[in-house]
Amino acid sequence: MKITAEMLAGVLGGRVEGNPQAEVSTFAKIEEGTTGALSFLANPKYEQYLYTTESSIVIVAEDLVLQQPVKATLVRVENPYAGFAKLLEIYESTIARPSGISDKAYIDPEAKVGEGCYVGPFAVIEKGAEVGDGSLIYPNAYVGKGVKIGKGCTLHPNAVVYHDCRLGNGVVLHSGAVIGADGFGFAPQEDGTFGKIPQIGNVVLEDNVEIGANTCVDRATMGSTVIGKGTKLDNQVQVGHNVVIGQNTVAAAQTGFAGSGKIGSNCMFGGQTGVAGHITVGDGVKTGAKSGISNDVPDGAVMMGVPLLPRMQHFRLQAHYLRLPEMERRLRELEKKLADKE
Q1: Active-site residue (options: 156, 174, 241, 314)
Q2: 119 within a domain of the structure (yes/no)
């Protein structure tokens, strides 16, 4: 399907700079643009490509000041990244979704599957499970006993939901995600071994939570491990037992939340951030990649590093760290001069 710059501006509430009848029929990164492709520019690091791209239309910021002539037609909007994401969402909605229940799927007679659902080959839905209307259960996905899944959810191939867990509406589990495996609970024994502590709780994923590929959310020892409404976890994230994460929080790949932590809403965790157990992280907290959180963090803090420090303090210390070899050399010279005088 072809769409013009004028039509795009109408959808995004933007304005056209160039040919309003320029047409596109595909998407491309700005540095790889070709005739007939739509691209966007949100990160200033990529501005150089705006002047050389072959894309027919580029979505840019309203306040972008051009440094050179541009071949492409521009659609200026307030937020190029959000605008482009909206277009991708519209495009995705036009892709035909699977439907029907495969005769190779297993659905227990006491399970309930709602209207308009898809259940792919070799998917399993166990006794007492309930799947809401319009949900997609892709091949080899597993829904355990007593699981409750809301409307419009998607379980991609090989996603696993253990018994008694709860998923709200619009939840997405990517391939290899495991919801409700046992929490890491073991008690030291007198003979030096570790005895397993039964994990009898569950996991609750509220509405519009998205869980990345190979991410694990462990069930609670008692009660529930809870991921709040709208929260998004990247691939290979670990959430320990009895963790509670608030609403609209995001965590990048390989972030780990140890057991019983309380994590606020609207937080952002950079990749490989480690959060210790039994601590509280406030609302709106942001951390850089590879940060280590070992103590409570107040609302709105912007922190990074190990030990965890306010962002600017961390940068100042890094600057001093890089100067240590030169400082050591100068110190040795001063010590030598003092020794010679003595």
Answers
A1: 241
A2: no
Does 341 map to a domain? yes
Which of these three, 73, 93, 113, is where a domain ends?
A: 93
d(CA 38, CA 2): 11
* 314: annotated active-site residue: no
> Could you tell me if residue 301 is inside a domain?
no
Full residue range of the structural domain in which residue 318 is found: 314-342
Counting the structural domains of the chain, the total is 2
**pLDDT, tens only, 77-110:** 999 999 999 998 888 888 888 999 999 999 999 9
Would you place residue 205 in the very low, low, confident or very high pLDDT band (cuts 50, 70, 90)?
Answer: very high
Tell me, what CATH number does 11's domain have?
3.40.1390.10
